[in-house]
Amino acid sequence: MGDDSEWMKLPIDQKCEHKVWKARLNGYEEALKLFQRIGDEKSPEWGKYLGLIKKFVTDSNAVAQLKGLEAALTFIENAHVAGKTTGEVVSGVVTKVFNQPKARAKELGMDICLMYIEIEKAEVVQDELLKGLDNKNPKIVVVCIETLRKALSEFGSKIVPLKPVVKVLPKQFESREKAVRDEAKLLAVEIYKWIRDALRPPLQHINSVQLKELEEEWVKLPSAPSKQTRFLRSQQDLKAKFEQQHALGGEQCDEEDEEETVAAVDPYELLEAVDILSKMPKDFYDKIEAKKWQERKEALEAIETLTKNPKLENGDYGDLVRALKKVVGKDANVMLVSLAAKCLAGLASGLRKKFGTYAGQVVPTILEKFKEKKPQVVQALQEAIDAIFLTTTLQNLSEDILAVMDNKNPSIKQQASLFLARSFRHCIQATLPKSVLKPFCAALIKQVNDSAPEVRDAAFEALGTAMKVVGEKAVNPFLTDLDKLKLDKIKESADKVELPGGKKGAGGGGDKKPAAKTPLPAEAPSKSSAPPKKTQSAAASKPSAGPSKKGKPTSAAGGKNKKTSDSKEFTESELSVEVSEELAAGVLPAICLQQLDSANWKERLASMEEFQRAVETMDKADMPCQALVRMLAKKPGWKETNFQVMQMKLHIVALIAQRGQFSKTSASVVLDALVDKVGDIKCGGNAKEGLTAIGEACSLPWTAEQVVSMAFAQKNPKNQAETLNWLANAMKEFGFAGINVKGFINNVKTALGATNPAVRTAAITLLGVMHLYMGAPLRMFFEDEKPALLAQIDAEFEKMQGQSPPAPIRFTKKTAAAAEEDGDEGEEQEEDGGGGGGGGHDIMDLLPRTEISDKITSDLVSKIEDKNWKIRKEGLDEVAAIISEAKFITANIGELPLALKGRLGDSNKILVQQTLTILQQLAVAMGPGLKQHVKALGIPIITVLGDSKLNVRTAAMTTLQAWVEQTGMKEWLEGEDLSEELKRENPFLRQEVLGWLAEKLPTLRAVPGDLMLCIPQLYTCLEDRNGDVRKKAQDALPTFMMHLGYEKMTKATGKLKPASKDQVVAMLEKARAVMPAKPAAPAKAGGGKGSGEPSRAASASRSQPASEDFTDSKPEVKKVRGGVAAKKGAAGKKPAAKSVKDDEDKSGPIFILIPGAKEQRIKEEKQLKILKWNFITPRDEYVEQLKTQMSTCFAKWLQDELFHFDFQRHVKAIGFMIERLECEREATIGCLDLILKWFTLRFFDTNTTVLMKVLEYLKLLFAMLNSENYHLTEYEATSFVPYLILKVGESKDVVRKDVRAILTMLCKVYPASKVFPFLMEGTKSKNSKQRSECLDELGCLIEGYGMNVCQPTAAKCLKEIAVHIGDRDTSVRNAALNTVVAVYNVCGDQVYKLIGNLSEKDMSMLEERIKRSAKKTPAAPAKPSVTERSQREHPANPNATFLRKPAQEDPNKLNQARQNAQHSESSHPSIPKEFQLDLDMIEMDQSGVCELPDLVQHKLDELLEPIMIPEPKMRSVSPHFDDLHNSTASTINFVISQVASGDMNTSIQALAQIDEVLRQEDKAEVMSGHIDQFLIATFMQLRLIYSTHMADDRLDKKDIIKLYSCIIGNMLSLFSMESLAREASMGVLKDLMHGVITLMLDGRVEDIEDGQQLIRSVNLLVIRVLEKSDQTNMISALLVLLQDSLVTTAGPPMFSELVMKCLWRMIRFLPETINSINLDRILLDVHNFMKVFPKEKLKQLKSDVPHRTLKTLLHTLCKLTGAKILDHLSMIENRNESELEAHLRRSVKNSGNLSGLKSDRGNEKTGLRTEDRMSKAKVSDILSEIFKKIGSKENTKEGLTELYEYKQKYSDADLEPFLKNTSQFFQSYVERGLRMIESEREGKTRIQTSTVIPQHGVDSGLSSNNEELKPAVYYERLKILRQRQGLENTSRGVGGSEDEPQQRPPISSLLSSKPSVASSTDMLHSKLSQLKESRELYQQEHNTHSPTHPRSASPAANLDDLKKRLERIKSNRQ
Description:
The protein is mainly alpha-helical and 2014 residues long. The protein is 64% helix and 0% strand. The two termini are 88 Å apart. About 18% of the residues have low confidence.
């Protein structure tokens, strides 16, 4: 029990996980009780168990598992968070519970699954159960099927989607397990209850016995459909309703439910699509053209069989449809016609919406074919056209149907009407808007009066159906001209109509769908300032509009009824005079009528006054308008002479029109008179008032047409002019809706040609007003006018530009009641912008259109589809000509759509572009009729957006925009086409389409539900591998959400993988925050101000008001397309206001420094949150992104200027930036990345003025950055340098010159080695100028910085450069040759290895160029004088310098290298820039502190990541940087470079990283090869601390101690590893010891806390360095250091003492190390020391310790080696002169070892004498023999050995005669061979690899010279120093030095200077270069007259000058 008590105390959740099953059981029991107790579903307690629920259900103990299942069920039922566990728990249930033998366990498992479904997780549960069906254990499969059945039975087919279940069902019938088959059968029966016969097709292939059994079961089922009995949490209202019904036992809503259920599952969805195109007979197209009808029949029967498949795979059915259409249209055999029609019907029903593309081509043919009388043909055609109708919309077919409504053949008219009747039945109010219904009703009303009874009946049926579908109220306005009898007949037809599924029509159950949409109009008032009329009208037309129904609708409806009952008055017949008088007498006073025709004008006036009073008091219903106006016309009528009476008359006309029910008949009585008086000065105003009133009564369009025709029937120009003026004004007041331009356009043309200027002016003014509404298309009517007149018209149009049409203030009276209703059109077609509802399209409809279908002949179509591209082009040219000739065309364009569609996929891109141009032309020409071609031709345009060529994509987008302008967006968004396009995995297509949608969706007020189909693709794009696609998808997300809603979109994430889902949901959250508001409903006032696009073609004045609602929250959404410069719309909005503010705004800073902003931007770009700045030409999204980034840190006014479309504003802005550069340095650096990015955009401008200004600023900017010691980051460089390099290829010299200057300066703020790869990329350009300039730059970089700049490797770069030697362009070839020559100058013959294999021609060119360059090489030019250079390098104001002297911006190394490749400063080829000295700068620098240049700083965290250079896409991707950074070596290089950083923290971090490597022995070897480099960086940092940091009071001394500790810690780690320590070279050790000893002596350190401890550590370090480093290098270093310290008296006195102590310690080690040290080198160093400090001079020193130290060293060496030491003087030239030799001899003598030496020397002398006696002839023979051997291939080695031995024996033998006739190459070969043998024999290969001083005595002319201070001594010493420093000696042989005293350096200079020692920088030389130099030295000394080598050094005087200056600097510093 002890165990039990332990777990009893645990909390519940821990018990549930306990290993003891009893504990778990107890835990589950307690958990169950707890779960039942927790009242709050959102309690935090639930969260504890989230991870445990899966364990509850999968418990291994059966007893515990049962209890666990109970607890889990309760958890799922009550916890809010339970949904998160669905996947894992259901999976656990399937695998671990369904296989249990206990029925209770299975039951609980099933309950858990059903509970998850109840909490809205049906999809996940279903997925897991379907996975369970694949389990090998049949028990699990059975329970899974049972669970699915139970779920379906309880929740119904809406909650449990049947498609995936039906898909796997047939497989279960094949199972070997009977239990599985039986369960599958039960499931099939359950499914059948829900979807009935839709289940048959998927199960048609199962075993026939099983199918028969199923059939039997299905028959037994009750006919009533199943009902949902269990409800989701979100369906509680349904649950309540269900329970209520259940309680009542009523079945009220059975019918509705039934409909819903039947509609829920479409059998089509459950089917697998069949690909019939591949199964078609191969000879089908031949057979269908066959002459025998039997063959044609065979072909069609084959197709008919295929089309019987209920669901067809999508594909290109164009050819098949064309063939069938041809049969239907032209085949004489009616049987074949009906067969073809059946095939078409099959295709349409199998493809459904996908057939919509072809509908437009087939329908006209079918309608025409209805002329056939045979019933079977008619029936087949009816079935076909009905099936086709379901694939498209009535709107798309309207043109075709209307075209045949006037056909002479009554059968066609009848069938068209019947088709309409059938089509209307499938419509609802939303899909049958007024805009579609109106033209149909007009055509049907004509047919109602047709002579053929069948036509009339069909028309009645169609109108009746329409009335039934949309309601009487919607149809009545179109039926006003019908008499009551016909109206009744229509109503009768309407009553007979049965809509599908027994719906009740408008207002009944059928209204459900529109009801779902009502929230859209209901929300409108809250979101817009549109008049509330809109909402009320929506409510009026949709009875289910809920809350927006508020009283008004009823009155509106009432008004409508009244109008309907009075409709006869509108078509009243003319009244005779008698009847008129009778009617008038009934309403007017008698006196009034009597005085009407009185001769006295006053009586007539009185009569008129009475008349007016009577009219004013009369009731509208009682007013006989026609009778009254006829009374006014009674004699004298309109000939009235008194103007007062006339004015009254005209006023009364206006009153009657306003107050009565004024018909067109009444109007025609008075119009003529009004027009006649309109030009009258006194009465004109009243006449116009009358005309306006009539316009209100009878509609403006009708009145205008009448008035204008009457005015132009007269000759009076005054009347004509005033009529036009009135019309212009009336249009503004009434709006443009319904105006028939055609009606009076000819009269306007007449007016334009009138002689009277007033008429012409009035006409032009009228056109101006019309232009407001119609836009550009209006001009097309007048293109034939004279140019002068056209200019006037254009000027008028220009005035109207930018204005929007005014809101209408008057309305036609009879439609006023229905005005709100008309507003509905705005909803159906957002794009309509005209006033009064849908004006935009009406305007386009007014244009006279030509039918071009007859010109699209089959020949033309076959031309367009020809195999030869030239013929295809001809065909396209013809089409373009046809369209441009016709100007405006109808929608019927024959077979052109399919032909053009084929060309959009043409392999020839020129033809694709031409097709796109034609489609743009087509859009303008066809106008709104284009809608029906969207599916056939529009969607393929979207496909072209995936083209790889930018220009093709741009053309496609322009075409797409042109189409959308005409069609609106609705057609594009309907159906699956758009989602199918997005499925294509083409990044270009996806980003273009998403960008387009993001631009268009916000302007729409409603979208088709099919938009939801695009959501899965949108989510895929959010995770696309292409960054641009992801960005576009993110931008589009809020615009989708604004239409579909957050909930719907979140629900759609259910099908994503969990990882993707989390990401997408997070993005949805973000998008929700920036979701744009829906645009307001358009105001019903005339001009369409609030609509998405004000008028169809008023493109010039379009201002996108709809999108302004949300531009604040999402700037990217607006105007995605457009130029690089800012969009005109934005820039041109408020110029006036802006100019006022200009001055005050510009006073503040132009850049705002935000800490960390740049780092944030870098981070975002790394994480791909923003676009990488990488493009071929800047796309709008880059410009928009830059704008957004700039908005936070640029002054608003400056940003506006920078993105202005006017280039002069750019110039102005750059001017401001130049002014502020100095005073806003810090902020400029803070925004540097953005500034540089903006300048890259300017590189793409073509304007030279801007470009020059840009370059001017950049020069100043880089000068400033250099002076600030700023280094460009990788991020800044990669987004700028590639684009700068583009400009190197500019055609203008002045630009190229500036760009080169900037590149030179760039190398000061960004490592040349990193600029190099950018230039290498530049050499791949197509622009030859750019290639040649880049190659020149590369050459200059190599000259200036050596081979180290060649990244990633010299060989790789050189191979790429060498390729250009064979370039077509001369300048490129030359540049490439020069660059290779520059490399040759740096590394000699090795260049041939590096460049690899070249063609013979290229190689000969290169060799020739190298020879030429060798001949040309002059001595290096003298440097510019110090003062001159310093003035140029340090001007007081850098800006001034650049402005004054653009040609000499920066005369540093690089520029000098450009001027002359042999400049002495470039003689250290491999020294990186960071380590080079600039003596001029140092000398001119007056400050006492010696500051070292900062190393290039790198962000440490970036080091280990590969660096991505954005490769602009026109250049192939270069692997350089990736290769470079993937290597460990480069990473170490970068970290080491940080060690010497001026920033202490950077340095500490770098040291920490290195320390980490050094402390791990297994990793430490990666440092091998980097030791010198690391030590150089370390002692540079030591110097920096000593000279700068310690002197800086602002720095915390603790930080300095910390840095010192890091350095010393690293050194100790390094020098504890002997293998690494030995790699340190002599020069580096010398500098390191200097730094460390200086630190030990620094008094400032001791004063700091912990300073003493530090000094002790340094002591330890010194000992470690002395012990572990290479002993030779160490002793040499100490000797040189001692020499330097003794020469420089200014240093601390203790310094030389400490150096000597170190030397003593080294001497102590000598007995152990003598065998490993290189005595030759040590003796050479001692020799050099003794030359500087001869014995006498040493003794003169204050201390004798140096002298003693040296003696002890030599004594110890002699003691250890004896006489052999004299053999180790090989490196010393002129040994006889050396004090050292004498000293050693003495020491050896004292040791008593001289005898051996004597005998040696004796032998030597004997040998010489023997040689004297040898005959000359014999010598000649021997040498000839030897040289023969050397010349032969086989015996070369032997010959060289013999020659070496001969020379050893006869040292003064003269080889000159044998060598002088041989080639230069052979001579150098012999020299090299002898050297190799010598080094082998002496076993000193080590010397070979370090600095080799050639051993030669041939020309040594100084051996006999023993004088102490001969100048030659110093010359020799200089030569050695030059050799060791990597400088080459002049071509003079050493022997010549005495003969040419004038060239010797002055002795004083040599005395005062100390021989400098090879410092650490020399160690960076390549070893190959050293070998080459020593070989060349040989050549020069042996071949006195050979031509000078290209790299021969400058004269000695120059070196002397250099030395003096170095000396001066040193003494100044110390």
